[in-house]
Input
Amino acid sequence: METDEMEENVMYLFRNFNRLSRQLKEKNWDIIDTTRVKVDAFRRTLPLIGDLKNPCMRERHWDRIKELMNVEFDQNSEDFKLDLIMRLNFQAYADEIAEISNAATMELNIENGLKAIREVWKATTYEMTPHKGDIYKIKSVDEVMQFLEDHQVQLSSMKSTKYVEPFIKEVDYWEKSLGYVAECIEISLQVQRRYLYLETIFTGEDIRKQLPKEVVIFDNLTSAWTEVTSNMFAGKNAIEACIYKPLPYLFNKLNQMVDNLDGILRALEKYLETKRQLFPRFYFISNDDLLEILGNSKKPAMIQVHLKKLFDNVNRIRIEKT
Output
């Protein structure tokens, strides 16, 4: 149906009959007024034709119309033409059909939005690079975090409309999945920061001797972190990296790793505090500097760079063997 052309012709006829009705008012020709009323009635049904022609309409929308009108018809049949539409009295349900047609348009926007989200997350992942052995390091998550933020807002907007019902399961799936990915990325970065900091410390023999219990915990953490990062690296995208490929309950595992790393850091801080109590000038320097001094306790030349932080007006000292 060429609705644009129909609308143009009907408006042309309606204007002409209005003009004739005014010009021939004194003659009282009923045919003029009767025809004008019929043309006007048809003109008012044209929006209904547009609603029925809406390409966004799906089978579920036609089922709602059939249920509303309590009639059966085949909208894909060649017989589904204007004559049948008028005979089945579609115009009596024009307002309800307009609402169904509008819902179809709004639902298609959600459908297309979900399709776009699916396509994005087929390929989107965060950049990881080899670190040591089988351990991988998360290098960049900027693109992933931007998509996460945009899509979470988009999904929230979808859920706030009444048109989301046909897609509520998929919207819930993506909302939960992306929320889980965001949590896993955030806590993975926390683990990585703590692990990389402690990794350099626990390579020193002095610390390994002084904190044997923490060494065992850290070595076990190293094995677990190796497994986690290897599985994340194997994922084709961020969803697989956080949900499908890694060990079950990845977030819980990472959360436990953070707790263990924090425990090691507290033990390390306590150990360094004992050294500061023995030599209060160690309070003037950072933990990293103190660890470097302790790690090179048998190499006096290596601690020269820290002397100016410990003592006023002292830059270097001369060390002589006796």
User: Anything to note?
Assistant: The mean pLDDT is 84. The two ends are 108 Å apart (CA to CA). Residues 16 and 36 are 9 Å apart (CA to CA). The longest helix spans residues 168-201.
